[in-house]
Amino acid sequence: MPLSKVIVVGAGPSGLLLTILLAKAGIPVELLEMTRALDTNPRASHYADSSCREFERAGVLDALIARGFFPNGVSWRKMDEDRTRIVRLINAHPDESDRYRMVCLPLDQLGILLETELKTLPNATVKYHHKVVALHDDPDKPQVTLDVETPDGSVQQFSADYVVGCDGGNSTMRKLLFGASVFPGFTWDKQIVATNMYYDFDKYGYDDSQFFVHPEHWHMVAKIQADGLTRLTYGEVGGLTHEELLARMPQKYATLLPGDNVTPDQWKVVNFSPYRVHQRCVDKMRVGRVLLAADAAHLCNPFGGMGLTGGIADIGSLYDSLAGIHQGKADDSILDIYCRERRRIWHDQINPISSVNMERLFSIDADEIVEKDPFIAMVRKMERGELPPPPPGTKSPTEALMYDMTQHYTD
C-alpha cells in the first residue's frame, strides 16, 4: 500500500534532502524544524562524489556546481616558518567533465538551494518553529503521532506512516526514543573551534585545503567559497567557555596564520563556532515506525568530512528503502536492513577512519609522519608515481560509504 505521509524532523541538509527525494517519489512529506530559520553556523562545506550523486537525484547538483567551486586537492603541512608541505593528494576527479567530483560551498548556502527546490514540490511542506515534545508509536494504531509545540505556543498532534529524525547531534527524536543520556561512544577531551574568515593565504602558497600537523597548534585551512572565504578549524583545550575561546582567538590566529607580525587588521572573521567533538552511534536506527539518520544517529569529528558524507549516504539508503515500500517493491523489513547496514558502515569505516584522521594531526611528529603513518606514506608514493593507478571501476573511498538498498527489493 502506498505511503500516505512521512514526517521528517530537522531542516538541516539531511532533512531537506530526504524531504525532496521522498516528495519527488510521490510521497507526501511534512518537514518540522524547531528553529525559525536555517542554520548559518560554520559547518561542513566539501561534498564528495557520493554526495553529489544524491544531490543529482534531488535535482540541485547544477545549482550547487554553479555557486560552488572545485578544490584542487588536499595537503598535509608542518607548522614551521615556511609551512612546509609534507605530502599532497590531488583531487581524485581532475576531469572537468566529471559531474560528481568534489565541490565546495558553505553548508548554509546548500541549505538555501535545498529549501528553494523543496518549495517547488506541491506534496512537501516545511514548518519552522515547530518543536517536537512527545512521541506516540502504538503498534495497534495505523500511524505514529508526534506532539508538536507550534509558533503560537499550543501543542498539536501530527501523524504519519513513518517519522524520520534528522535533527542533528542534539536530536530530540533520539532522546525521545532512548533517553537524554543514551548515546553510545565517547567525547574527545579536545575541543574544536570552527571559523569562517578571510586572509591572504594565496600569498604564502597555500593549497585549496590543508591540514597542519602539530601537538598543540594542529588545525585545518580550507577555501570554501570562490571569493576566498576560508574555513579555519583549530584544536583547543577542553573545558573552556565560549567567551574564553573567543578571547583566545586573536592569539591563536596570530600563531596559526602565515606571515610576520600578523595582526587582527589583516584578517576578517565571518563566523565563530566552538564545539565539542564526539564519536558516537546509536544501537538502533529504527524503532518501530521511527527512524534516525545522519547526526541524529551517529557523530564523528569533522576531519576528512566523514560525518557529512556518511549522513548523506544514510539519506540515500533511507530514501530507497521508503520509496521501495511506497512502490510495493519492498516490505517493512527493509528498514531493519537499513538500520543494520548503516550502523555497520559507521562502525567499520566512518568511526575508525575519522578517528585516525584527527589523531594524525597531533599524535605524530611532523618530521616522522611519512615513516610512521601508512596513509601518508601511501600518498607520498602516489606523488612519486610509485603506485600503479587503481583498476577501472574501483570505488572511491566515499562511494564505499554508500549502500544500495534496491538490491533488497522483492519485486
UniProtKB/TrEMBL annotation:
Residues in coiled coil: none
Keyword Oxidoreductase attached: yes
A Pfam family reported for this protein in Swiss-Prot or TrEMBL: FAD_binding_3
Top-level lineage group: Eukaryota
Record-linked InterPro entries: FAD-bd, FAD/NAD-bd_sf, PheA/TfdB_FAD_monoxygenase
Entries under SUPFAM superfamilies matching the protein: FAD/NAD(P)-binding domain
Gene3D superfamilies assigned to the protein according to its UniProt record, in alphabetical order: 3.30.70.2450, FAD/NAD(P)-binding domain
Keywords: FAD, Flavoprotein, Oxidoreductase
Segments forming domain FAD-binding: 5-345
UniProt entry tagged with the keyword Flavoprotein: yes
Signal peptide bounds: none
Name listed for the protein in its UniProt record: FAD-binding domain-containing protein
Source species: Sporothrix stenoceras
